[in-house]
Specification:
six-stranded mixed beta sheet, elongated, alpha/beta, 393 residues, Rossmann fold, 16 helices, Alpha-Beta Plaits, four-stranded parallel beta sheet
Length: 393
């Protein structure tokens, strides 16, 4: 079980290696949540996430024989990048096993740092099994993503920084997957005597954009720490994560990945008790560009910035133009039009149209819907209605 002394030793090893990341107050989230919100920007850390802290601290403790044998890791992406970078700096070999569907941005980044990557299995657990087998076969040291006291101590250095930057915070929100990050931070804060309420934030089970915390089982070591340090856990959905990620990018100019946005998602969903200041750990910013496009479009739809509709119109010249004229007259900007005649209508005299429009806000969406329905055509709104979040100042 790591101690505060181990965390302080890790900080000494990381001096000049890991950045002391800034803590940003955010007017937008403070206004929306009705309480002061502070963002701990680990997305600005080297390799794009907090993982460099634990990986480097572990590799820095290896003996000469261990260094010659190299290291191996299993990772959904961020830990692999950190291990590859730290191993390169130490002049040793690193092999990283990653799920077959790991984001390519994270795979390529791991390779660019000098790591040899192997894509295996469907999830993190399969990658761990492959990494353990490789370690037994070759003698390489397994640098586990969260089930290692040296990794937890390294992540705990964020807790030391938060104690200096946000000692007044009433609440701290930390993403939780395997639990190494939350265990390290909460251990440091508790042993320093800070009275903040600490909550872990998790994603709903199943397919998720929060791949960095999508693990089936919390680590035993990390879990033992969290049992005595966490106030509780809060669960958020992918829709809520998408909205938080989009708003964070648009208003704070900070790009975070799905796992990095879960704390903000919990705040926006109104699930964080209390009314005092909240420090939110933005754990990483390594998001694949194609995923980002999809997430932003979904997030904009959730916030009333995109309106998608399906409608049936008469199949005759000029009808589609009339519909688009209605949109243009109300200053909607057409993003796409899908016009289908086969297999979607009740008669041969109709055609189905799906239109996506860029809008100002939810009120603008409702105005466009009313205008389109006033034509007498059946109009179906696609996707969820906008949430309560407003981007107006």
């Amino acid at each position: 079980m790591p101690s505060l002394a181990d965390v302080r030793l890790a900080r000494e090893r990381l001096a000049g290696v890991a950045r002391v990341t800034p803590l940003y107050p955010t007017e937008t989230f403070t206004r929306l949540c009705g309480r002061p919100v502070l963002l701990k920007a680990e997305n600005l850390q080297r390799t794009g996430s907090f993982k460099i802290r634990g990986a480097y601290n572990t590799i820095a403790t290896l003996g000469e024989a261990e260094r010659r044998a190299g290291v191996v890791a299993a990772s959904a992406g961020n830990h692999g990048q950190a291990v590859a970078w730290a191993a390169r700096e130490a002049g040793i070999a690193a092999t990283v096993f990653m799920p077959q569907d790991a984001p390519m941005a994270k795979v390529e980044a791991t390779r660019s740092y000098g790591g040899h990557t192997e894509l295996v299995g469907e999830g993190f657990e399969e990658a761990v099994a492959a990494a353990r087998a490789y370690a037994e076969e070759t003698g390489a040291t397994l640098v586990h993503a969260f089930e290692d006291e040296r990794v937890i101590a390294g992540q705990g250095t964020i807790g030391l920084e938060l104690a200096e930057q946000a000692a007044e915070a009433e609440t701290v929100l930390i993403p939780v997957g395997g639990g190494g990050l939350a265990a390290g931070i909460s251990l440091a804060l508790r042993e320093l005597g800070l009275r903040a309420r600490i909550f872990g934030v998790v994603c709903q089970p199943g397919l998720t954009i929060a791949d960095g915390i999508a693990v089936k089982h919390r680590g035993e070591l990390a879990g033992a720490i969290l049992e005595r340090t966490l106030e509780g856990t809060i669960e958020v959905s992918d829709e809520e994560i998408s909205e938080a990620l989009t708003l964070c990018l648009e208003r704070t100019k900070l790009l975070v990945e799905g796992a990095g946005a879960v704390g903000l998602a919990a705040l926006l969903a109104g699930r964080v008790p209390g009314s005092g200041s909240v420090a939110v750990v933005l754990s990483g910013g390594n998001i694949d560009a194609t995923t980002l496009i999809s997430v932003v479009r979904h997030g904009l739809t959730r916030s009333g910035r995109f309106l998608a509709v399906r409608m049936l119109i008469p199949d005759r010249p000029g009808e589609l133009r009339n519909v688009l004229d209605i949109v243009a007259a109300r200053r909607g900007n057409v993003v796409s039009v899908d016009h289908r005649r086969e297999g979607t209508t009740t008669t041969a005299l109709q055609t189905e149209v799906e239109i996506v429009v860029s809008t100002r806000d939810e009120a603008h969406c409702r105005e466009l819907l009313e205008a389109l329905r006033a034509t007498g055509h059946a109009v179906e709104r696609l996707g969820p209605p906008a949430s309560r979040v407003s981007r107006s100042e």
